[in-house]
């Protein structure tokens, strides 16, 4: 099981360690630092490392490495999932997961880690349960605690811990009962030079924010559930009902949670909202090249494309860019060789264009690698797969809740090759 | 209030200040002080000096303070064991607290204090907590048993905690069950043979029930535990699969992968024609695809596992090629893994797409990735024959880019393509030669030189090209030097007239100026070959080379099976068996996929047929349940109306095979073992599925006899033994042996006359026997044998005689007649003499057959004290018509894959493992029986055992 955890910042300092069994010396991290050195970019450090006596499994989140040490055969996915859960919990508690925040709340973090694992076995990882045992810090509570001498550690057994619905505590009370669902879809796509789709899929997620009194039992149904053939659910969803009736039936956790993830991979269902006309070329003679990019709407289902942004990783030889944009602004970072063109809203009548010349280092050969364009965009009130919620019903409680569904489409890893 | 920036602490004088605060009367101040202590501790500062002061704060009713002190205790108790005893009393008291949270906390913390003295005091409270009314306490206590076991295993066993833990598997609360399973699994890991998790259908049912209700982590433990169970039959296996499938939709990827493991393993038992089997295959694809949209670290582990799954069951993901396309911002470790899987999935149907992608990758920035992409194009060419031409032209395009590392990499793979498709793409050589100058990596240079040498006759200026390399001969790496030497010798053999000087030059460079022994030796060998017999040299150097094939990068099948059982573990990430690297797994048990329950017909074949088939055999062997082959063959061969007519002798070979198999695999395996050993059979009562590894005997005898005196390799033949003592045969003594000489089986006998009178008129006859052995001609004893005279006779045998199953299988009943009387005796022949010379199976056929054979057709045994290395073993076995098809070296263990064929057409496949490193070499072998009876009926029979 998980033996120890080290938190390491981007400069390679260990700023927190926690051992669930015997103490393991920090020197074990040297193997990790070696791999870190070799990988150049922090993202490229291999997640599983072998050392003579231990295994190091790490994740990279928010410029921090969460490095766990294990000694026996443990499913690595279990460890990685757990580490992400630790990062999620810290984020959930303190609003962000960064070195500064962890250092400021070091004792709370330590207490949390102690509650999350016992001897390497996960103990309580549900944020609801944790919050009952260790209350998240708020300014108000700090003041009250200082005055009354009360503590922020709960002294009753968390109610959810052992019930059949461990994700929900009992005795929830709200004056405004509300349930909101956000259907968020991300398009992952690769388009080739000519604009044809090489690969496209949709990663969808339904985020819920449920503040309902008591023990409500919800049923969410879709207009077109056939779209969903590859899904994964929050543990609260009754899988049998889904199998037989294609509805989501569940007793929700209290607060924010991810109800389900889904994945639409069938190519014909994935609409590509924009097209990109681009040409980036470098001349054989002379240290310069040309760049010309135009973006236009393709399948937007009548909605407006917003937050449009193009990021280009230029070849190393490119020294500067002298461009003009008909809309938005562009920046070229010399150090990282990244060209960012922030466009904003896409106007179908007047297509945004970026055009101009690039200067390459004199004397170097024509760059070999083709830069690739990453597109960022947002479309409000549209789930690009066409998924629609038809209704939400509540059983088990008498009151009438406010209900709402929002849709949002974003670009995930949306890449155009040149 | 809690969150002061503790990091402002300075070390000097701090301890003193903290001490004062800890002893303060004010609760608040105390708590703040403990917090500061903890904060220092977490960043690695040594605050152990404060131990007594912190422990003094322990007796408090403030839960937070208590928890903080506990945190401190856990960290420092080890270094201050005497002080830690002070805390025991409080722990014991807390274990009686009315608040279950405090009880659980106390028992949990006590387990974390890794001090021997404390563990004694822990036993009583722990026992109570294991039976606590509150499940929260019980589940915490379950984990505590594992902790205690880690500190003092003996104590846990003596106190009977293990039994209590086993009882908890039947607990009413799913969380308690899950924790008990997790604790037991962890304990079991350090006690591989203790059979702690005794899985039976009842416990499995409990686990499956708990699976639905416990937390995600608990589900992982339970699924991993389920994966160790072997269902009794395909029906049980299906019902478990049905209950596990919903886990595939879990949000936690570890749960998904553990479920995939269980399904992949149990699927082996399902008959392939079952509808459910197809459904299950379809259900496996989406969750695997979903894993690839998770965080990159999760993706990496998932991809390593998918790599295994794709090799075992390519059908699952064959339509999902696109999800493995590499994205620009994937981390490099994900990119490389995706590439690997793309090649595994490449087929004629999708090759165009794959090639287009690979070509795209070859223009990316990351050099490592580009190189691998270029290599991948080459692998595609070798894997998908139809695409070879396309791949070659893609590679040529890439060479045109003139990007240095791309060109070099392309040349290396083109060399491989030439080796797979000789004489097909030579037109590209000209293009390759143009890039000669830009090659600076040894591998690329060596590859280019190889190409020039191999096709020297088609390259006009081959001599010039090679000469240009020769100039800097001593600066080249060994790889290039060796390659250059060979290439020039090839060139010389092809164009002897113009290149005399060149070859002289390279030979002298290699033999006189080099201090590399490999190079020198190779140089001398060539030199002598060329100077003594140029024709022979030509035959040796220009011999036709074996084609390479794509399976070179596949995981060896036995290992793959084992790894499939370890999906989701570290072993699956490293693609190594757990025994090879996991520390602390003292003697990990090898896991194996369960055998298939037969391909359809097996289960219901009527026993009557088989009974009829063997009715004449002396001990009527009714094939037992595991012995499906006999049933199968009877089913296939005997007419359905057989009510008892004994098989006529003329039914020959077919019946032979059937009878033979009717008798059971056990004897066949025994035979084979005997064949490799010296007439030592496995216990004939052994069941196919559970072979006790025979105690001794083995290949060593065969080896020693086969070649110890340096005589030409010949089939093994046991020393002569007395078959018929003189006492029983009125003075005629017959001793003899069997041998295979030049493809003919011979019975070599010494007839000794110990009687007073002359013996004449010898004749011999065999009873029907298992392999249809019969004298090929009359016994040639031409002269009368006088008293005290001996005569040597060799009787050639044929295998077309009447067949009857014997017990033991190789028993041969012989009748010898002379002028005095008729005498009967029986003898056993070594099965190795039945191995025929054409028993060498095609590599591909071997691989395919090996994979197809169900696991329960396997047996294995071990051969002890064999002082031979794998090559010597292989050549000795070859003398006995045991052919080595392939050899692989994994983890210092040589694996020889061998085939042999019996006279009646039965194929035997074997895997021989030779582990070096121990002065007493151990030879392990695994046998596979493939039977092809009269062409029409083809059933596989395979037996296996493993290293002990």
From TrEMBL, chain A:
GO cellular component, one term: Golgi apparatus
Transit peptide in keyword set: no
Keyword Membrane on entry: yes
Annotated keywords: Cytoplasmic vesicle, Golgi apparatus, Membrane, Protein transport, Transport
Domain MHD residues, every copy: 176-417
Main location: Golgi
Tree of life domain: Eukaryota
Localization per record: Golgi apparatus; Cytoplasmic vesicle membrane
GO biological process, one term: vesicle-mediated transport
InterPro entries: Adaptor_comp_med_subunit (IPR050431), AP2_Mu_C_sf (IPR036168), AP_mu_sigma_su (IPR022775), Clathrin_mu (IPR001392), Clathrin_mu_CS (IPR018240), Longin-like_dom_sf (IPR011012), MHD (IPR028565)
Alphabetical list of PROSITE patterns matching this protein: CLAT_ADAPTOR_M_1, CLAT_ADAPTOR_M_2, MHD
Membrane topology: Peripheral membrane protein
Family of this protein: Belongs to the adaptor complexes medium subunit family.
Function: Part of the AP-3 complex, an adaptor-related complex which is not clathrin-associated. The complex is associated with the Golgi region as well as more peripheral structures. It facilitates the budding of vesicles from the Golgi membrane and may be directly involved in trafficking to lysosomes.
Protein name stated in the entry: AP-3 complex subunit mu-1
Organism expressing this protein natively: Sparus aurata (Gilthead sea bream)
TrEMBL record, chain B:
PANTHER family: ADAPTOR COMPLEX SUBUNIT BETA FAMILY MEMBER
Family membership noted in the UniProt record: Belongs to the adaptor complexes large subunit family.
Cellular localisation: Endomembrane system
GO BP annotation list: intracellular protein transport; vesicle-mediated transport
Lineage: Eukaryota, Metazoa, Chordata, Craniata, Vertebrata
Region (Disordered): 584-620, 632-652
Gene: AP1B1
Top-rank lineage group of the source organism: Eukaryota
Compositional bias of kind Low complexity: 632-641
InterPro entries: AP_beta, AP_complex_bsu_1_2_4, ARM-like, ARM-type_fold, Armadillo, B-adaptin_app_sub_C, Clathrin/coatomer_adapt-like_N, Clathrin_a/b/g-adaptin_app_Ig
Pfam families attached to this UniProt entry: Adaptin_N, Alpha_adaptinC2, B2-adapt-app_C
UniProt membrane topology term: Peripheral membrane protein
Keyword Protein transport: yes
The entry's keywords: Acetylation, Membrane, Protein transport, Transport
Gene Ontology cellular-component terms listed: clathrin adaptor complex; cytoplasmic vesicle; endomembrane system
Protein name according to UniProt: AP complex subunit beta
GO molecular function, one term: clathrin binding
Chain ranges of the Clathrin adaptor alpha/beta/gamma-adaptin appendage Ig-like subdomain domain: 716-826
SUPFAM superfamilies, per database record: ARM repeat, Clathrin adaptor appendage domain, Subdomain of clathrin and coatomer appendage domain
């Amino acid at each position: 099981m998980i033996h120890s955890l080290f938190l390491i910042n981007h400069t390679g300092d260990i700023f927190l360690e926690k051992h669930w069994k015997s103490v393991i010396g920090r020197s074990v991290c040297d193997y990790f630092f070696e791999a870190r050195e070799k990988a150049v970019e922090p993202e490229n450090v291999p997640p599983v490392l072998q050392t003579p006596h231990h295994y190091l499994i790490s994740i990279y989140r928010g410029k921090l490495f969460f490095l766990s040490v294990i000694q026996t055969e443990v499913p690595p996915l279990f460890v990685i999932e757990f580490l992400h859960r630790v990062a999620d919990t810290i984020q959930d508690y303190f609003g962000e997961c960064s070195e500064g925040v962890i250092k400021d709340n070091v004792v709370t973090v330590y207490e949390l880690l102690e509650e999350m694992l016992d001897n390497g076995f996960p103990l309580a990882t549900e944020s609801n349960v944790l919050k009952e045992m260790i209350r998240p810090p708020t300014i108000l509570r700090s003041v009250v605690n200082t005055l009354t001498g009360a503590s922020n550690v709960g002294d009753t057994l968390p109610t959810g811990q052992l019930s059949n619905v461990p994700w929900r505590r009992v005795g929830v009370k709200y004056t405004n009962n509300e349930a909101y669902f956000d259907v968020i879809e991300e398009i992952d796509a690769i388009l080739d030079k000519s604009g044809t789709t090489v690969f496209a899929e949709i990663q969808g997620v339904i985020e819920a924010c449920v503040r309902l009194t008591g023990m409500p039992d919800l049923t969410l149904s879709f207009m077109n559930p056939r779209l969903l053939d590859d899904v994964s659910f929050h543990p609260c969803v009754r899988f049998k009902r889904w199998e037989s009736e294609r509805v989501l039936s569940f007793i929700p956790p209290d607060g924010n949670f991810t109800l389900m993830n889904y994945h639409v991979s069938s190519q014909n269902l994935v609409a590509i909202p924009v097209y990109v006309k681009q040409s980036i070329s470098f001349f054989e003679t002379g240290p310069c090249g040309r760049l010309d990019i135009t973006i236009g709407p393709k399948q937007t289902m009548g909605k407006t494309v917003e937050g449009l942004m193009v990021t280009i990783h230029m070849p190393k030889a490119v020294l500067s860019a002298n461009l003009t944009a008909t809309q938005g602004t562009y920046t070229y970072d010399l150090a990282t060789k990244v060209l960012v063109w922030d466009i904003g809203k896409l106007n179908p009548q007047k297509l945004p264009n970026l055009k101009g010349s690039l200067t390459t280092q004199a004397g170097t050969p024509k760059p070999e690698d083709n830069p690739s364009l990453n597109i960022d965009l947002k479309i409000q009130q549209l789930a690009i797969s066409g998924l629609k919620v038809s209704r939400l019903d509540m059983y088990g409680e008498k009151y009438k809740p406010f209900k709402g569904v929002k849709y949002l489409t974003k670009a995930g890893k949306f890449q155009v090759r040149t | 209030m809690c969150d002061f920036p503790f990091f402002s602490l300075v070390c000097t004088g701090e301890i003193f200040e903290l001490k004062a605060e800890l002893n303060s009367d004010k609760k608040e101040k105390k708590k703040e002080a403990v917090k500061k202590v903890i904060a220092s501790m977490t960043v690695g500062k040594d605050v152990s000096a404060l131990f007594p002061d912190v422990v003094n704060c322990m007796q408090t009713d403030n839960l937070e303070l208590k928890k903080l002190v506990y945190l401190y205790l856990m960290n420092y108790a080890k270094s201050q064991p005497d002080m830690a005893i002070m805390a025991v009393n409080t722990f014991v008291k807390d274990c009686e607290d009315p608040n279950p949270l405090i009880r659980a906390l106390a028992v949990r913390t006590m387990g974390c204090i890794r001090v021997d003295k404390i563990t004694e005091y822990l036993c009583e409270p722990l026992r109570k907590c294991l039976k606590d009314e509150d499940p929260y306490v019980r589940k915490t206590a379950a984990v505590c048993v594992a902790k205690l076991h880690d500190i003092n295993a003996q104590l846990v066993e003596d106190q009977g905690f293990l039994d209590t833990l086993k009882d908890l598997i039947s607990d009413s609360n799913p969380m308690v069950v899950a924790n008990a399973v997790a604790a037991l699994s962890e304990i079991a890991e350090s006690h591989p043979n203790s059979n702690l998790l005794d899985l039976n259908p009842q416990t499995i049912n409990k686990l499956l029930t708990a699976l639905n209700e416990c937390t995600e982590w608990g589900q992982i433990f339970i699924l991993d535990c389920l994966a160790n169970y072997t269902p009794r039959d395909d029906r049980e296996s299906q019902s478990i699969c049905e209950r596990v499938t919903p886990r595939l939709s879990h949000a936690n990827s570890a749960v998904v992968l553990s479920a995939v493991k269980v399904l992949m393993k149990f699927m082996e038992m399902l008959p392939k024609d079952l509808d459910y089997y197809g459904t299950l295959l379809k259900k496996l694809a989406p969750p695997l695809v979903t894993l690839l949209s998770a965080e990159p670290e999760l993706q990496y582990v998932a991809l390593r596992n998918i790599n295994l799954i794709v090799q075992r069951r390519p059908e699952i993901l064959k339509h999902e090629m696109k999800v493995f396309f590499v994205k620009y911002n994937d981390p490099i470790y994900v990119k490389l893994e995706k590439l690997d899987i793309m090649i595994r999935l490449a087929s004629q149907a999708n090759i165009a797409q794959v090639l287009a992608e690979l070509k795209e990758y070859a223009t990316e920035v990351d050099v490592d990735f580009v190189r691998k992409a270029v290599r991948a194009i080459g692998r595609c060419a070798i894997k998908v024959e139809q695409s070879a031409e396309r791949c070659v032209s893609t590679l040529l395009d890439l060479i045109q880019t003139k990007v240095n590392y791309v060109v070099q990499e392309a040349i290396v793979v083109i060399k491989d393509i030439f080796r797979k498709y000789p004489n097909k793409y030579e037109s590209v050589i000209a293009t390759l030669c143009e890039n000669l100058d830009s090659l600076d990596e040894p591998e690329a240079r060596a590859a280019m030189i190889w190409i020039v040498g191999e096709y020297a006759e088609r390259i006009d200026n081959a001599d010039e090209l090679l000469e240009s390399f020769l100039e800097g001969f001593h600066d080249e790496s060994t790889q290039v030097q060796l390659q250059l030497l060979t290439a020039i010798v090839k060139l010389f053999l092809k164009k002897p007239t113009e290149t005399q000087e060149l070859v002289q030059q390279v030979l002298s460079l290699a033999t006189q100026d080099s201090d590399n022994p490999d190079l020198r030796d190779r140089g001398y060998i060539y030199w002598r070959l060329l100077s003594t017999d140029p024709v022979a040299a030509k035959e040796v150097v220009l011999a036709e080379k074996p084609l390479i094939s794509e399976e070179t990068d596949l995981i060896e099948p036995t290992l793959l099976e084992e790894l499939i059982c370890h999906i989701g573990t570290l072993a699956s990430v490293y693609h190594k068996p757990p025994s090879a690297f996991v520390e602390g797994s003292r003697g990990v048990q090898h896991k194996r996929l369960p055998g298939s329950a037969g391909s359809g017909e097996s289960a219901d074949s009527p026993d009557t047929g088989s009974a009829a088939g063997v009715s004449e055999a002396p001990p009527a062997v009714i094939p037992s349940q595991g012995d499906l082959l006999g049933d199968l063959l009877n089913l296939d061969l005997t007419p359905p109306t057989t009510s008892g007519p004994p098989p006529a002798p003329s039914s020959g070979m077919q019946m032979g095979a059937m009878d033979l198999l009717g008798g059971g695999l056990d004897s066949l395996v025994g035979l084979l073992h005997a064949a490799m050993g010296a007439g030592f059979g496995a216990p004939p009562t052994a069941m196919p599925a559970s072979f006790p590894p025979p105690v001794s005997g083995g290949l060593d005898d065969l080896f020693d006899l086969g070649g110890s005196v340096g005589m030409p390799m010949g089939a093994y033949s046991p020393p002569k033994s007395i078959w018929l003592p003189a006492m029983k045969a009125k003075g005629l003594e017959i001793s003899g042996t069997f041998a295979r000489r030049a493809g003919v089986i011979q019975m070599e006998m010494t007839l000794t006359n110990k009687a007073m009178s002359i013996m004449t008129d010898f004749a011999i006859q065999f009873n029907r026997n298992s392999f249809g052995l019969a004298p090929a001609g009359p016994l040639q004893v031409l002269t009368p044998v006088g008293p005290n005279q001996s005569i040597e006779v060799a009787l050639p045998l044929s295998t077309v005689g009447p067949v009857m199953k014997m017990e033991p299988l190789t028993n041969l009943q012989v009748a010898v007649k002379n002028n005095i009387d008729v005498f009967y005796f029986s003898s056993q022949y070594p099965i190795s003499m039945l191995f025929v010379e054409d028993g060498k199976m095609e590599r591909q056929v071997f691989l395919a057959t090996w994979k197809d054979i169900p696991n329960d057709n396997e047996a294995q045994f071990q051969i002890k004290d064999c002082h031979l290395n794998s090559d010597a073993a292989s050549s000795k076995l070859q003398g006995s018509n045991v052919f080595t098809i392939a050899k692989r070296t994994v983890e210092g263990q040589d694996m020889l894959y061998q085939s042999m064929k019996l006279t009646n057409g039965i194929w035997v496949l074997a895997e021989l493992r030779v582990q070096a490193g121990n002065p007493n070499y151990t030879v392990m072998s695994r046998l596979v029986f493939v039977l092809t009876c009269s062409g029409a009926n083809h059933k596989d029979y395979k037996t296996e055992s493993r290293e002990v």
